[in-house]
Structures are given as structure tokens and as C-alpha cells.
UniProtKB/TrEMBL annotation:
Residues 219-254 form the PAS domain. One of its GO terms (biological process) is regulation of DNA-templated transcription. The lineage of its organism: Bacteria, Bacillati, Actinomycetota, Actinomycetes, Kitasatosporales. The keyword Nucleotidyltransferase does not apply. This is histidine kinase. It holds the Pfam family SPOB_a. Residues 413-524 form the Histidine kinase domain. One of its GO terms (cellular component) is plasma membrane. It comes from Streptomyces oceani.
Amino acid sequence: MRFRGPRRVFSQVLVMQLALITGVTALVSGLFLAPLSDQLDRQAMRRALAIAQSTATRPGLVSELNTPPSPDGPVQREAEQIREATGAAYVVVLNEHGIRWSHPSRGEVGRHVSTDPGEVLAGREVMHIDAGTLGPTARGKAPLRNSEGRVVGAVSVGIDYASVRNRLLSAVPDLLAYSGAALAAGSAAAYAVAFRLRRRTHDLAFSDISALLDEREAMLHGIREGVVALDPHGRTRLVNDEAQRLIGLRPADVGRHVTDVLGEGRAADVLSGRATGEDLLTVSGARVLVANRMPTDDGGAVITLRDRTELERLGRELDSTRSLLDALRAQDHEHANRLHALLGLLELGLYSEAQEFITEVLGVHQAAAEQVAVSVHDPLIAALLVGKAAVAAERGVALWISPTTLLPNRVVDPNAVVTVIGNLVDNALDAATGTPEATVAVELRAEGRTLLLQITDTGPGIPPEQRDLIFTEGWTTKKTSAHRQRGIGLSLVRRLTERFGGEVSATALEGGGAEFSVVLPETLANPEHVPRQAYGAGDAS
């Protein structure tokens, strides 16, 4: 049966920590016992050598070696007294030929020693652990010298090695007690750490955490909403693919402060939390984004970004379509009235008056279209102005094209320029509608490749304290529409103008009204590359 270890992070960490603590405790205990054993051996050998040295210096011992060795001799008696007094295993006195003069076993007296005495008889003191006739002992040997300093024998003292081992074993219980206490304290600390980790990981297994991480990565980079995660200091720590596309972040920007990456502005305010609320609008480049910010427990935040660019475009198209439908209804009503008037003239036989009436009606529309076609040579901008003139007429506003308007070249990015002009004209129409002698004036001029645009209206004007706010994303004085949010048009105008390297400004006119001025450098195509032809009224209509 195959052994299966614990799967939970809590259990695995606890087992690993306990194994580590047990191993370290055992290693430390072993490292403590090894030098202790060596220290006890050295102490026993030094003690044996000290007894041997003191015995070798006893007066009369050298002269007593001149008598034959005997179990009842003076050397044997004196050696046994020293052995009993010191607790040594043996005290052996030998002559220069290695013959014992004393031994704990009386029968060994007079015999040659069991180990080689050459080194001590050469005049050197010896310490070692060796086994002899009495078993393993810690030995100390000292040379025995006569009055002339010549070595005439030696004294060998042995300490029973069992006593040394007993001293070592007596230290083991205390060591085990200390080790057990250290092990218990380490186990308690390991359990506390593992328990905290259990709470932080929700008691999941490592495989579950790995799977969740893989699923999170797949989800974050697969969803069509931008996700940006910030740490408590406002630095980016996660950016998915959609967020990189929407706000221009790069993988290298992870770890940088959001203001350093995006710069000062509405987008940085929304992401950093300086702008609060739900479904906050912001503009990044030419994109309209809706952001929501959710704080996290550690003080950071997760921001989701939704792209509303297409929705805003569709909303504007819906507004234009509604305006066009209203204009068509009004024109239908107006044409019906004119047809009734024409029918009445014909029934009355006033044919010349009927002809003059038709010519006058056609001339008004044709004159407006011809004026735009002659002054503006870019077809999209010309068509935009003609369409806006029809919408303005239906709303009771006169859209007036300045006589100084002249745009001889086409623009290099007509969609962007159409967005700028269309938003400004729409705002001017909203402001002028309902005012006396409601008028919106448009002037387009070319200076080299730079396009100059001025749009004025007869609306209520712009208070000085609001002239900087009107270009902020989400700021509006209009009632929010049911199908789209307000506060985007002028923000897009500013962003597109800055993209061209230009500038936009708003001023108040004397007597009421406002004037918007836009400078778009490098917007017009080179004159030699564009056929300079005017569009007829029929082409523009």
C-alpha cells in the first residue's frame, strides 16, 4: 500500500517543522555529548597521570626497587594504599625492565607488564586509554628517576573506564530534559505558525492553491474587462491583458506607482482612489472607460475597467438618429404645409406665384449646402456641417458658417476631426436652444497644415470658475440620459486635441454666449497631394 502524506498546507508545514525541530534537537544533543565524552576521557587520563607523578616522587620508592618484588613487599603495600586512597583501578610500579613491583592482583607481582613500557621508560610521560589485564582504563604513566635523574622504572596508574562512562550517562537525563523542553517549545511555536498559515490559506492543499493560481491567471487574462490590483502604497501589483490594452500599461510597469505610470489626471485619480464613487467615467486616449474600485483587506485595491467607447458611440448615434427623426418629422410637416400652399396656388391658377414659391424654397437649402461645399473641401467635414445645419434648423437654431471659413485641404484623420467638431457643435446647439435669436457660428481656417476652429453660441455662457472643469471626464451640467452618461464629449475633445499636439480653450463673450477655440497642428494633408476641387451642392447634399 502506497503511503500518502498529508495534503493540507497546515498539516504539511506542521510535519515538516516538527521533523526539522526534532532533527535539530537530536543534532545539538549529539554535538553536546561528543565533546563531553572526550572531555571526561581527558579528565580521567590527567587524573591518572597526576597520581602517577605524585607516586613517582615519593621518597624511598627508588631504593625499594632494589629489593626483590614481593606481594608482601613495601612497594606493594604503599601502592595499594595509594590506590585505595585515590580510587584508582590500579597503581603499578615497574623497574626499567618492565617487571611489576606492585599490582592489585597479587599474583601479577613479579611479572612483566602486559603493555609496552618503552615510551615511559624512555623518559616521556604517557596518557591514553587502553585495555589491559583489568580491562579498559584511562591510563597515566610517569617515569621513575633516581637521584642522578636516570630512569630506573615507571609508575602506571589506571582509572576504571566504566566510571568515566557512568559520569557521561549521568549527564544524559539532564540533557534529555533540556532537549525535551526545547522540542516542546519548538513544537508549540511550529503549531502556532502552522495554525496561522491554516487561517491564511483557508485550510487548502498546495495542489488546490496551485490550481486556484492557474485558474486566476486564466480568468484574469481571459475576461474582457480590465483588472488592475494595487498594493497599500498605490503601486501596481497585477495588470491583466485587457487593462494593458485599455490604459496603455505594460508588464514592466508592475511595481510602479499608478501616478508615475499614468501621470496626473482623472485616470490616476480614479485608480488611486482620490476620485470616489461607483461607475466612474474616465478617458484614456480615445477610449471612454467606466471604473469601479474595490478596497482589499490589506489596504490595497482592485480596479475593474470597462470599455464604453462603442456604447458611447452608439449612444451618440442614437441621439443623432432621434434628432434626425425629429428633423424628418418637422420637415414632413413643413413639406406638407408647403405642398398644401403650392396646391392652393395651382388651383387658383397663380402659376407664376407657384414657380416663385418653389424657387425660394429650394434656394434656401441649396444656398446653405453650396456655401459649405465651396468653403470646406473635406467631404466628411462638409457633410457633417450640412447635417448639423438641418438639425439646428429643426431645433430653432441658426447654424451660421463664417464667411472667413476656408478649408482647402482634406484632413489626415477625418474621424478624429469630425469627433472634435461634432461634439463642440452639439454642445453649442444644446446651449443656444431656447435663447432669443439662437445662433451657432462655425469658423474653420487653415494655416499651413494647422487647422484653426472657432465655434460660438448665444447660450448662457460659461462661469469663470467652471472653464477648467468643463473638460474634465464625467463633469456635466446636463441631465443624464437614460441610455448613456454625460460628461464625455468635451473630455474627448481635449484628449484628441492633445493627441495632435494642439490645445482647446473656452472663453465667455460679451453680452452672453461662449466661444470654443481649437488649434490642431499637422492636421491637414499636403496641398500638392490632394486635388483641390470644390464639391457642388448636389455632391454635398
